[in-house]
Amino acid sequence: MAEVSSKEFISIREDAVRAALKELPPLPTNITLNYYSNVWLGTGGLVLVFNYGATLVGTPSGWIKLRSHSDAYYAAESTKNPWQALAKCGFTIPRLKKKRVWDEAMAAQLAMHVLEQDGER
What we know:
The protein is an alpha+beta fold. It contains four helices and four strands.
């Protein structure tokens, strides 16, 4: 296996992050990614973003802002897994990783979550 320098790894990772973000709806207007932002890719097209002042889960249906110091925030911080963060938000996620895909049922759960939070994403 060929050696990959850290610089090449970073550029490969950045390309993967850019590609994943292009598949999702635009970030909320008050959020901009910068050099200090951390983005973690999950299975099924989900993205977890740690940004200064906000932690977000990106889904094909929209973005969810995790409240700081909530169970979902701590799950996201410790596992770097957007699915685990959604589970702590009350979403029902498939137990098997290979079945974790974003579908209409997940989109409905997102809509209900937004309604329960009084429209706050």
